[in-house]
Specification:
Protein name: ABC-type sugar transport system, substrate-binding protein, contains N-terminal xre family HTH domain
Low-confidence stretches: 1-5, 365-390
CATH class of the largest domain: Alpha Beta
GO molecular function: carbohydrate binding; DNA-binding transcription factor activity; sequence-specific DNA binding
Helix content: 40-55%
CATH topology of the largest domain: Rossmann fold
Keywords: DNA-binding, Membrane, Signal, Sugar transport, Transcription, Transcription regulation, Transmembrane, Transmembrane helix, Transport
Subcellular location: Cell envelope
CATH superfamily of the largest domain: Response regulator
Main location: other
Radius of gyration: 28 Å
Number of domains: 3
Shape: flat
Number of strands: 14
Strand order of the largest sheet: 2-1-3-4-5-11
Structural class: alpha/beta
CATH architecture of the largest domain: 3-Layer(aba) Sandwich
Number of helices: 18
Length: 512
C-alpha cells in the first residue's frame, strides 16, 4: 500500500506541476540541530511539496545553539513567511522568539520539541513521556524487577530529554529492587555519552541495563562500558529506531542494542497540517504521532521495509526532477499535446508498477508462509554450508560460535515428522497415533518430543501445516475453497474458512 501511494504521489506531482497556484505559501522550517533524524524529516517535507506545489520551503539549522536559532527565526520574519515550523532547541530560551512570530499573526507549528508557552497554533510529535515509560517497563520486565540501570539523558533543557526521563522514572519507580545508578547528561550525540561515562566517578560495575535516550548515546555508552570489568552482560536500549546501516534498526538487528523505539518523523503529515492551517481547513491543535517498540523479533523486517520505502522515495525524486526538466523545455504551442502524452505514459508506468507490486506482495506473503512453516526456529533447520568468506557468528558473550556443519538430531527429527505429516495431510481421519506409528514411536513419545522442540503439539502442527498448504494452493492454483479444504484434510469448508481466517487474518476468498 505504501508503494502504491508513493507512485500516485509521483503521478500527481508531474500533473500538478503544469499549473501554478495563484497563491504560493512560504513555509520556514527552523531545526534545532542537524542529524540523520532531522535530515529524514526535511526530506519528507520536501516530498510533500510534490503534492502541494504551491509551497516554498526554507530550512535553517541552529546546530544546537539557542542564540543561532533565535537569529534564524528573526531572519525568517524579515524575509517574510506565511507559517513557521519550529523544533525549539530548549524549552525556555527560544520561546520568546517563537512568541514574537505568533503575536504577528503568523501561524506556528511546534514539532518534536515543546516550548514553555501556549503561543503556538499546533503541536505535532510523539509522546516522549510515554516512550520513556514504555522503555522503563521493557527494561524492568527484562530484568524481572531487579537490577542496576544507567540512564544517558539528551540535551539539558530540551523537552524530549525531560519527558523521557520523567516517563522512565515513572516506570521503574514501581520496582523497588531496580536501582537507577545515575542519570548522566549527554546532548544526543554518541560522543557526549562516551564523555559523560568517562567523567563519572561513581560505581559503574555490574550495570545490567543502559537506557540511552536515543540510539546514538546508547551505542556510545556500549563502546565505553564494554571495556570495563564485569560488563559483558550489560544490555543497551535507546530511542529513534532509524533505518540505514549503523542506525537504530540495524543496531537492534545486529544485537548491539537490545531494543529501540521508533521516533517517527512523518514530514508529510507535518506539511499537511501546515497546509490545513494556511488553507483554513479543520485541524487539531495537539497531534500525536504513533510510535512502536523495536526488538530483535521485528528489527529485520522493519529495516527491510524502511529500505524499500527509501528506495521508492529516491525513485519519486528522480521522476519529479525529470518531469520538471522536461516541462521546462516544452514549447508553449505543444504543452497540451505533450502533457497528454506524458500523463498517458506515466499512467501506463503506474499500472505496470502497481501490477508488479501486487505480484511481489503475493510472492512475499507466500515465501513468508513457507519460511515460517510450523514456527520452527531458523537455527533448528538443517543449515546450508557456510560461505568461506563469511565470519563466524559471535554471541553476545563474545564467544565465537562455530558454523553448523551438519543437521542436528532435532532438525532431522523435525524433517522426518514433516514428511510424515505431508504424506498424511489429505487424510481427514488421521490421528496422532497414526503419525506416531509412521515414525515408529508411541503417541506419548511423539507428543513429548514435538512439544520439547517446537513448544507445540503434533495436532497443532498438523493443523498449521494444513492451513499453510491451503494458503499455497489458493495462491498458486485455480482450485476453489471447497476443493482446497478437502485436499488438505478438512471435512467442512465452513470450518476450514474459520480456521484459515484465525491463522492468517484474511479469508480464503481473498486469495482465490
Amino acid at each position: 500500500m505504501c508503494k502504491t501511494v508513493l507512485y500516485l504521489i509521483a503521478i500527481i506531482a508531474i500533473i500538478t506541476s503544469c499549473s501554478k497556484s495563484e497563491k504560493t505559501y512560504k513555509i520556514a522550517v527552523s531545526q534545532c540541530s542537524e542529524d540523520i533524524w532531522r535530515n529524514k524529516l526535511n526530506e519528507e517535507l520536501k516530498m510533500g511539496t510534490y503534492v502541494h506545489n504551491n509551497v516554498e520551503l526554507s530550512f535553517a539549522s541552529a546546530d544546537g545553539s539557542d542564540e543561532k536559532q533565535i537569529e534564524q527565526i528573526h531572519q525568517f520574519m524579515k524575509d517574510g513567511m506565511d507559517l513557521l515550523i519550529v523544533a525549539p532547541n530548549q524549552i525556555a530560551t527560544v520561546s520568546p522568539a517563537i512568541d514574537e512570530v505568533f503575536d504577528k499573526g503568523i501561524p506556528v507549528i511546534v514539532f518534536d520539541r515543546k516550548t514553555n508557552s501556549e503561543k503556538f497554533t499546533a503541536f505535532i510529535g510523539a509522546d516522549n513521556f510515554e516512550m520513556g515509560r514504555l522503555m522503563g517497563e521493557y527494561i524492568a520486565t527484562k530484568l524481572k524487577g531487579k537490577g542496576r540501570v544507567l540512564e544517558i539523558m539528551g540535551l539539558k533543557g530540551s523537552s524530549p530529554a525531560i519527558e523521557r526521563h520523567n516517563g522512565f522514572l515513572n516506570a521503574i519507580s514501581s520496582y523497588p529492587d531496580i536501582v537507577l545508578v545515575a542519570s548522566l547528561q549527554g546532548d544526543w550525540t554518541e560522543e557526549s555519552a562516551m564523555k559523560a561515562i568517562k567523567a563519572y566517578h561513581g560505581d559503574l560495575s555490574n550495570i545490567d541495563f543502559v537506557f540511552g535516550q536515543n540510539d546514538r548515546m546508547a551505542v556510545g555508552a556500549s563502546k565505553v562500558l564494554s571495556k570495563l570489568p564485569a560488563s559483558h552482560h550489560t544490555k543497551y536500549c535507546g530511542i529513534d529506531g532509524l533505518p540505514g546501516e549503523g542506525n537504530g534498526l540495524a543496531s537492534v538487528r545486529d544485537s548491539i542494542l537490545e531494543a529501540s523505539y521508533i521516533y517517527p518523523t512523518h514530514g508529510d503529515e507535518v506539511l499537511q497540517l501546515a497546509m490545513d492551517i494556511l488553507e483554513g481547513k479543520p485541524y487539531k491543535k495537539d497531534n500525536r504521532l504513533m510510535a512502536s517498540l523495536v526488538t530483535k523479533d521485528n528489527a529485520r523486517v522493519l529495516l527491510l521495509q524502511s529500505e524499500e520505502l527509501t528506495r521508492q522515495g529516491h525513485n519519486i525524486d528522480f521522476l519529479h526532477e525529470q518531469s520538471d526538466n522536461y516541462l521546462q523545455q516544452l514549447d508553449t504551442q505543444r504543452v497540451i499535446t505533450w502533457m497528454a502524452v506524458g500523463i498517458i505514459v506515466l499512467l501506463l508506468i503506474a499500472i505496470v508498477l502497481l501490477y508488479r507490486y501486487h505480484l511481489n506482495k503475493v510472492t512475499m506473503q507466500r515465501e513468508r508462509v513457507i519460511n515460517t512453516l510450523w514456527n520452527i526456529p531458523v537455527e533448528e533447520l538443517p543449515a546450508e554450508p557456510a560461505e568461506p568468506e563469511q565470519p563466524a557468528e559471535v554471541a553476545e558473550s563474545g564467544v565465537v560460535k562455530p558454523e553448523p556443519s551438519e543437521p542436528t538430531v532435532d532438525s532431522r527429527f523435525l524433517a522426518r515428522f514433516k514428511e510424515v505429516v505431508e504424506a498424511r495431510m489429505s487424510d481427514s481421519e488421521v490421528s496422532v497415533e497414526d503419525l506416531a506409528a509412521d515414525m515408529n514411536l508411541s503417541r506419548v513419545q511423539l507428543y513429548r518430543k514435538v512439544k520439547a522442540i517446537t513448544d507445540s503439539s503434533p495436532v497443532e502442527l498438523l493443523r498449521t501445516a494444513r492451513l499453510k498448504r491451503a494458503y499455497q494452493l489458493l495462491a498458486t492454483t485455480d482450485k476453489n475453497i471447497s476443493e482446497v479444504a478437502y485436499d488438505v484434510g478438512f471435512t467442512a469448508p465452513s470450518y476450514f474458512t474459520k480456521c484459515f481466517k484465525d491463522e492468517f487474518g484474511i479469508s480464503p476468498s481473498d486469495l482465490s
